[in-house]
Design goal:
Elements: E1 5-13, H1 19-29, E2 33-45, E3 51-56, H2 59-72, E4 76-79, H3 85-97, E5 103-105, H4 121-130, E6 136-137, H5 141-148, H6 156-168, E7 174-179, E8 187-192, E9 197-202, H7 213-226, H8 231-247, H9 263-268
Parallel strand pairs: 1-2, 1-4, 4-5, 5-6
Antiparallel strand pairs: 2-3, 7-8, 8-9
Helix pairs in contact: 1-7, 2-3, 3-4, 5-6, 7-8
Length: about 270
């Protein structure tokens, strides 16, 4: 049996709920073979309220990882925490060099539990180098506002405005994650393909155990694209997958609760 191959360019979440750990678990649940190019290692300080510390890897180490994976060949890829302009430029260069055409950009700007943008200049680099190469980009409300330069987004109309602006920057498809943060009675995301808007709705899950949800969603889309689904179908099925993961999230310690990456296949399918 031959598996479809996927790549994640992302950071390592030492606690296991997000980052490449979430991506690999999600890839496995979708029956694809996941490979990684690590940008950073994120640790959490148990003696300082789980404060996140980011430990970047060298650009040469990242490039060596990318050369390893891309020499094998991949069917789809995603990005997560990139962290610096130099890393974003390298990712864009490799996408072009290897003619990668199923590219999911998850524009990670902050660590879960932190509210400080990792490196503000990377937003401009994403706008300039990554959006035009994205098959689909998956910002949350904060990230969409930053990419579209609209400011805070609180309504569906605001999501539509941001989606149009992000599409105009070159992204072929945009999915803005409203989730439970939006002022709506459902957990709502907005999909835009440049022609029409589609609202994706699921019941809101009242939980704080949602660490890794964004990474899991983007990795599920990547897996679905690798497995031959069209973009809209890939996004719709990823929404079901991550909703189950959130529904069955659990407490890891007093600071964090991750989603359960295998919940859809175990309980919902």
């Amino acid at each position: 049996m031959t598996l479809k191959k996927t790549l994640t360019i992302a950071g390592s979440d030492t606690s296991g709920g997000a980052g490449i750990q979430a991506d690999l678990k999600t890839f496995q649940e979708h029956g694809v073979y996941g490979m990684t190019a690590l940008t950073t290692v994120v640790t959490m300080d148990p003696n300082n309220h789980w404060h996140h510390n980011v430990h970047p890897l060298s650009i040469d180490t990242l490039e060596a990882q990318l050369e390893t994976v891309l020499s094998v060949g991949i069917d789809a890829m995603k990005t997560g925490m990139l962290g610096t302009v130099e890393i974003i430029e390298l990712a864009a260069k490799k996408i072009d060099q290897f003619g990668l055409d199923k590219v999911v950009i998850d524009p990670v700007m902050v660590c879960k539990g932190e509210d400080e943008v990792l490196n503000p200049e990377t937003t401009d680099a994403m706008r300039e180098h990554l959006l035009q190469r994205a098959t689909v980009v998956t910002p949350n409300l904060f990230e969409a506002g930053q990419l579209a330069q609209t400011g805070p987004i609180k309504t569906i109309d605001g999501m539509k405005e941001a989606a149009k602006k992000i599409h105009d920057l070159g992204a072929k498809n945009v999915i803005i994650k409203g989730g439970k943060q939006l002022e709506h009675d459902k957990a709502l995301d907005l999909f835009y393909d440049g022609k029409e808007f589609t609202l994706l709705e699921e019941e809101k899950v009242e939980t704080s155990y949602n660490h890794g949800a964004g990474c899991t969603f983007a990795a599920a889309i990547t897996s679905n694209l690798a497995n031959g689904q069209d973009v809209k179908e890939a996004v719709q099925n990823a929404k079901k997958f991550v909703t189950a993961a959130i529904k069955h999230g659990f407490k890891l310690n007093e600071y964090v609760g991750p989603v359960m990456h295998g919940a859809y296949n175990r309980f919902e399918k």
